[in-house]
Design goal:
The complex is a heterotrimer.
Chain A lengths: L3 H18 L5 H26 L2 E5 L8 E5 L1 H24 L5 H21 L3 H20 L4 H32 L4 H7 L4 H17 L9 H7 L2 H26 L1 H5 L3 H21 L4 H21 L8 H32 L10 H4 L1 H15 L5 H15 L3 H26 L95 H16 L5 H7 L18
Antiparallel strand pairs in A: 1-2
Helix pairs in contact in A: 1-2, 1-4, 2-3, 3-4, 3-10, 3-14, 3-19, 3-20, 4-5, 5-6, 5-10, 6-8, 6-9, 7-10, 8-10, 9-10, 9-13, 10-13, 10-14, 12-13, 12-18, 13-14, 13-18, 14-16, 14-17, 14-19, 14-20, 16-18, 16-19, 17-18
Chain B lengths: L6 H17 L6 H27 L5 E7 L2 E6 L2 H24 L6 H20 L3 H19 L5 H32 L18 H18 L8 H4 L5 H28 L1 H7 L2 H20 L4 H21 L3 H32 L10 H4 L1 H15 L5 H16 L2 H27 L34 H6 L15 H10 L33 H19 L7 H12 L1
Antiparallel strand pairs in B: 1-2
Helix pairs in contact in B: 1-2, 1-4, 2-3, 3-4, 3-9, 3-13, 3-20, 4-5, 4-9, 5-6, 5-9, 6-7, 7-9, 9-10, 9-12, 9-13, 11-12, 11-17, 12-13, 13-15, 13-16, 13-19, 13-20, 13-21, 15-17, 15-20, 16-17, 16-20
Chain C lengths: L25 H23 L9 H7 L8 H9 L1 H22 L14 H24 L7 H17 L10 H24 L9 H28 L20
Helix pairs in contact in C: 3-4, 4-7, 4-8, 5-6, 6-8, 7-8
The chains are: A mainly alpha, B mainly alpha, C mainly alpha.
Chain lengths: ~575, ~575, ~260
Amino acid sequence: MNHAPVLVVLLPLLAALTSLLLPYRLAPWLFSGCLAGVGGLLIPLYQRLIATGVFRYRIGGWGWPLGIDFYLDGTGFIMLAMTWALLAGIGWYSLAYFRGRPAAAHFWPLLLLVWAALDNLFLTADVFNMYVTLELLGLLSVALIALAGTSDAFSAALRYLLAALGGSMCYLLGVAMIYSASGTLDWVFLRTVLTEGPRAAMALALVTAGLMLKSAIFPLHFWLPRAHANAPAPVSALLSSLMVKASFYIALRMWLWIFPGVLHTHVAGPLLGLLGAGAILYGSLLALRQDRLKLLIAYSTVAQLGYLFVFFALSMHPEDVTPALQAVVFFALSHAFAKAALFMGAGVVQRTLGHDSLDRLAGCAQRLPQIVFSFGVAGVSLIGLPPSGGFVGKYLLIDTAIRERQWFWAGVLAVGGLLAGAYVFKILARAMADGLSPTFAPHLASITAPSHVLPDGAPKAAGDTFPAPATVATGPTAPTEGPTTSFTPPTTSAPDPGISRHPTPAPPAAAISAAMTAVPAEAAPPDRGLVWSTWTLAMTAFLLGLLALHPLQMIAIGAPETGPRLPGSEILK
Amino acid sequence: MNWYKWLPVLMIASSAGPAIAIFFLAEESHGWRTLWNMLGAVLKIVLMGVLFYEVHLGREIAFHVPLMPGLTFKLHADSLSLLFAGLSTVLWFLTTIYAIGYLEHSPHRSRFFGFFSLCVSTTIGIAMAGNLITLLIFYEFLSLTTWPLVVHRGNPTSIAAGNRYLVYTLGGGALLLLGVVWLQTLVGEIDFVARGGLSALEAGTHNDLRLIFTMLVLGFGVKAALVPLHGWLPGAMVAPAPVSALLHAVAVVKAGAFGIVRVVYDIFGIEFCERLGVLEPLAGLAALTILFGSWRALTQDDLKRRLAYSTVSQVSYIVLGAAVFGPKATIGGIVHLVHQGLMKITLFFCAGNFAEELGLHRVSELDGVGRRMPWTMAAFTVGALGMIGVPPVAGFVSKWYLGWGALEAGMPWVIAVLALSSLLNAGYFLPILYAGWFAERTSPWPATHGAPFPGTSIHFPPDSPANMGGPSATETCANPPAKLPREPLMPPTRGKHRASHEAGAPTAIVFGSEGSPSVPGGLSPASTSTAAWEISPLLLAPPLVTAGLSLLAGIFAGSSFSPLYWARFIMMGEY
Amino acid sequence: MDPTRGAPRQIPPGADPTGEGRAPSLLVRLLTGVGVTAFGVLLAWAILSLPPTAPGLLHEVREHLPRSGTKSMVTAVLINFRGYDTLLELTVLLIAVLGVFVIRQGSRVPEPPPMPLGPLAREFIRVLAPFLVIFAGYLLWAGGEHPGGAFQAGAILGALGILLRLGGALPDRAWGVLTERLVLTIGIFTFAAAGLACLAWGETFLTFPPAHAGAMILLIEATGTLAIGLILVLLFVGGSLAGTPPATPRPTPEAEP
């Protein structure tokens, strides 16, 4: 009898609790142990899925309709595997990122709890259990964003908390309506029990409104850019790649498995699709206007989530929604890897250069070649160029659109790719620009002074230039090039949100609109772990298209038109 | 054992592998980098030879692996693949040698050669694509790998040119993607088969097919620089000369033209195209491009831009050959793929040599260069004459077949276009030849090899030894022998100069000025010639070889080793 | 409580660097008002159109109650039928506390304990405190048949803690770090352990055998009470009350903003 489904959730949960009791230094070991353990548990799950198809696990032994069951199908498994892989990458990155910083003591338990919550979400068959998971993820996100310790991060976290609570409320109301109408909370069986009609539509609308708030679908995306941009880099990666997918996953289950009839009316689908198209357009255009790297990437998340909602406009014929389902899940998968890599790279840029201002990225390709390369290949996945996973996802979505003669949506998807190209190459062009060019005001004499810190309470007047931070070209680039950039007090870039340890005395006279403690550019090259973890995730996103076949086939297991089995037929202890 | 089906994969890997290795090399490891480069190039030639041999034996070489449900990634080696792949392989070998010489002491060489090798892999992938989706994959990938080369110098002009390039190629790629997906929803997997596989489709879909044809042609046409989609090409000339030579004169534009050829012959089939009626508009577009390109070339003073517009014009000969319904025209178009490649790369090599050695970027500065650099000028002459269509250089052969085919197809206006274009070609090439060989040098060379300060020049009287191309006084006294370590002997010379011209910035000579690729700390004049040569052998040999090949291709066109024979062979499969 | 207290002050009070203090434009307010009103109307209509009585799962609960190990329907649903949800809810509470810790960035509560109360209040608290403990214990026990259980008892313990804090009896370094963390997590640990014990008995997770169900439920509730009580106290206090600071790493010199 295989308990793997519940162990997949319990292992990270118990590891999180244990890491609270043990010295913080052991936490990464616990995390690695979880990686090994959960990875090992995924294998029998996979084998079972391939061999016999979907299956259930009854928690508490009560079964439907009283108890909570776990239910695993292809989509759920892909999400579990995606979580595992992304957490492996983010964990590797965080190891280096939080090394020697007090935030590490808080970070690892929270990360493990996120893992447990996500695994629970992708396995559970109970819509109320999903609500609890949403609460878990919401609070965890708030805590993780607040790890940055800056007041920007706190205000972003608070805004997110309010949005998340509002979203959860709506979702709970919707679930309550579903329960009162059907008497069951198991989404696999809800379709057989629930009658269609305006009440179902209202419940679905409530649920979707709540989920839209939580996954930042235009126009309810207001909380996302600042939250993702001000969090520490591994947290941003986690949020943009996994958390937003969680609420989309619930929406997917709701629309395709529980209430497919609502899509048949051909009203809701195009409406959601229009919101998605709006998200693509709005997010991309705003991304182009940003001058901070992390904000650009955050707005790119808003845009890419729009793709996920365009899917609803393409799935109006649930008799054969499998290709569209495969497309959108695979798209979500490759976006997760690409976005995580982008945020991780931005974190390295911020650490190394001391800022993430796009206008001062010149010379970055020389200093951080592997990171810029990672930006390139991850960006390729966002644009949807071969051989990346984004290409396969986009191809399949356009294929579905054209087969259904939905030219508008095919065009939207194609244009979305072009807009993504615009902002991806904006980053790359800035990074590839030559740091020695006089346009970018080089200082040819490299100063080997260590980090330069503002004396407390003595703000420099805007317009003073700090001496160029020590930048000896490092890594595999030529030592004869010592690109340095002149450094005026930035008014737009934020301080490194990696930590903030003690309250520093406020600089008097707020002539500077965003006064900051001076962020010294680190003289040392970035930690190898940071660079390689970023690179690995980026290359995974880039090459995912070549490995697409099997995941796509897996997603088809348990796809909606195969229908739910009769209660009790395939239930397993 | 079916080992030979791996040959296409190996061919792609033979430059992709070195690319990855080169990316990780430190900037100073010249030796390793050269080793990897040459290893890849030589290996590719060897594999090409093996491939030719196997195909000659009659083997079917196809490699496929499933990619998505319903789609396969397929590489095959049919005759057209071999033509394009063979051309790319040989030219890559020569360009690698050229690039090693040209970029000595330039920064970011690891990055450059890494992407350069990847570009060639991608081009071979395009050549060997066995179905439309594989072609699309490599085609889009080519846009990605060429962009870092366009923006290589990192100055604002390069970045702007790169942005422009992206707008065009990504836009074309989106259109192409829509067309490909649409076609695949109609027919499923689309393999390249001789004579095309679409003629069996029913008449109701014909309008859709016409639209799809347009989308595909426009998508490929961006890279093939069809008017009005050619706007990226002249700007892309800011890239270093090896990039312009191989990629933007040969690989990228040929990839676009190759795509169109595949669409017409191996997807739709030439006879089906004729039935659909799409050939005449295509011919018209091609003719328009030919004339427009040649006309614009007349007014360009910058040599590389003139050559760029000439490329715009010449590549459309290939499209024209595809668009005219008739075996001769087909032969003419396909063989021009090879001929134009050889001739154009010669011209670009020579232009690079003029810039590298003498700092000459403008046609108006080329007076008397034939006496300074006779071999280069000779190669340039061969290429130019071929472009004009003068026998016995290869260009004449392709134009002859195109004209003949047009006559047979009953499209005499094409002959008028060809004639007019030849006249225009003469109009912008002959003055260069005249200036180079016969004109007297009235102004000093902009940056003579060995001048103590850039910007100054040493005026050589017409009969001085320097102008004879022999060892000059300044050369011997100011040139250290080639093997000295890099010391700051003098301020950066022509390297900077070439860059600032290509960047379009004023030639203000300030240490570390904009656009300079040179490393602060000075450099010694690289690629110093020994007394007997006008320029480094690394830079001289490639254009001579390609010029010679152009001549041979023309002279021995009738033999069974010529590109013409190969094109005839391809044609026979298509009708 | 101001969540930014204790955070590094980087913006002078009164400044509005991101422009968020501005009221939104009239158009935005109008659209929002229209949207919310429409939503409210739809919502009201939907809820009013629900059937007046919805049986839900009442019948199933009654049917399985004897096997659940408790006589109270609420407790049965909470700890047995839907026990997994409760396990996760306990985790939610824990995360809330962890979040407060994060905002504190370290376990030291920077502000001093509140002003000590007068002698009358202190005496009152001294009398009340043991009674509250007993009351909590009673609620815990009574949960088996009447309204009661872990959350209610935990709330009482939390109230006790708040009273003690206000009375000055709960100092800043009241207990050790490990103790505090242990009590915080004991609820979830016990619950999970109970569930895993069922695996040892050959059942699925959290399938309590009817013979032992009562005892297990009591154990889970007891530990849950402690945990919930402490969580509520710490949420009120706004940080950890633990003694020595946890083993936070000394910051390495160059790794700093």
